Amino acid sequence: MIQARFFLSDPDRPYAPARLSGAVPVLLICAVALLDVLTGAGISWLPLLAVGPALAAAVCGPWGVLRIGLLAVAVGGFLIAPTDIPVRGRAIMLIAVAAVTLASCLASLLRQRRERVLAAVRSVAEAAQNALLKPVPARVGQFQVAVRYSAAAAEARVGGDLYALVSSPYGVRVIVGDVRGKGLPAVSTAALVLGVFREAAYDEPDLLDVVGRIERSLARNLAPDDFVTAVVAGYPRSGRMEIVNCGHAPPLLVNRSGVVAVEPTRPAPPLGLGSLGGELPSLQLVPFDDGDQMLLYTDGVIEARDHGREYFPLMERVPRHLCDEPSQTLAALHGDLLDHVGGRLHDDAALLLLRKPVAGAVPAPAEAPLG
User: Fold this and answer.
1) How far apart are CA 225 and CA 222, in angstroms?
2) What gap in Å lies between CA 235 and CA 173, rounded to an integer?
3) Burial bucket for residue 223 (CB in 10 Å: 0-12, 13-18, 19+)
4) Could you report the per-residue pLDDT of 152-187, keeping only the tens digit for each?
5) What fold is seen in the domain 133-355?
6) How is residue 254 annotated by DSSP?
7) Does position 88 have pLDDT exceeding 80, yes or no?
8) How far is Cα of residue 89 from the mean position of the Cα atoms in its chain?
9) Phi-psi label, residue 360: left if phi above 0, alpha if psi -120 to 50, beta otherwise
């Protein structure tokens, strides 16, 4: 499975950029001392020494802040020693720097505690994500597979987008969907959809019956204004892909003719809104031969905007990155997407790419088991 991974550094072992930032307070103290010596202003610049330990609280541990504070006090004492400033004035200045140092040590300690709590929450969130979005092997049935997923809630690492791929007695079946909303309610709905899909994909010979079971389950469990857009696809026999689109972005079919959006012939409402009427989901048959690829995605991809508020042109970018390895294709496409938005997505985004290898061109390794 090709999936974005996130790690949080130990607060006591910061990354190299944090260690580099820890040198900034020391440089600031040296700059203040140099400025005081060059201008001969006496005590005028020395209160700025307190900025050193205050800034260190954001990047250093308590002991690091204390060391920088002691350095600031020592430099201050050295600079005011030859002056004719009264002892009381000297003491007040040095005590002020020491007080700021102690307050900064407390702030650093509280920051480290919050970081440890956040690290624990992230580890639980990643475990929940791995249970919800189970790893997909690089090869399932006749297909090469790759997945890329990014959650907008960067602190949680999970979101409302969902995907699953099942090798069933009726062929390979896949779902990609998007739950209305974000956060824990969206994750709960996504878990419900994936659980029903994984069971129904094994039990139901007809792909429309798989979609029907998901619809009935959501109708019983969702609030009236909640819904899930989804594309459910299956490959029951060679040369043909079945697609059921329930209010979702159309998959992209990549073949010798180029990149084509598979628009639904009869648009159906999202899952969970079937009781409101409208068109029922329909089964769409698409030719799918050796060498063909199909990209399923969520609206977080096509609705991602750059600084000029321009949407990400997915159909234009896909041909630039196509190759015979789906993992490489999605890695390049995902990097292009992040470049487009300036480094951070503001909505959950999922990409799933299926490729039917040309017969004899790719060896068929043993298929990894699916949960």
Assistant:
1) 8
2) 7
3) exposed
4) 655 445 567 899 999 999 999 999 999 987 667 778
5) Phosphatase 2c; domain 1 (3.60.40)
6) E
7) no
8) 54
9) left
From the list 142, 64, 146, the residue with the least C-alpha distance to 105 is 64
Taking the complete model, does pTM exceed 0.70, yes or no? no
Q: Are 182 and 152 in contact (CB under 8 A)?
A: yes
Tens digits of residue pLDDT in 107-130: 989 999 998 888 877 776 666 666
Classify 288 as helix, strand or coil: strand
Least confident residue range of 6-15, 57-66, 68-77: 6-15
Helix (H, G, I), strand (E, B) or coil at 255: strand
Which of 103-107, 207-211, 359-363 has the least mean pLDDT? 359-363
Residue 161 to residue 177: CA distance in whole angstroms: 6
DSSP-based three-state secondary structure for 156: coil
Handedness of CA 68, 69, 74, 78 (dihedral sign): positive
Q: What pLDDT was estimated at residue 321? A: 92
DSSP 264: -
Q: What amino acid is encoded at 104 in this protein?
A: S
Q: Is 171 helix (H, G, I), strand (E, B) or coil?
A: strand
Tokens representing 72 are 């600031």
- What is the reported pLDDT for 93? 79
Q: What are phi and psi of 136, to 5 degrees?
A: -105, 125
pLDDT band at 360 (very low <50, low <70, confident <90, very high): low
Give, to the nearest 10 degrees, the angle between helix 87-132 and helix 62-80. 160
CA distance linking residue 219 with residue 276, whole number of Å: 10
Q: Beta 284-288 vs 143-150: how paired, if at all?
A: unpaired
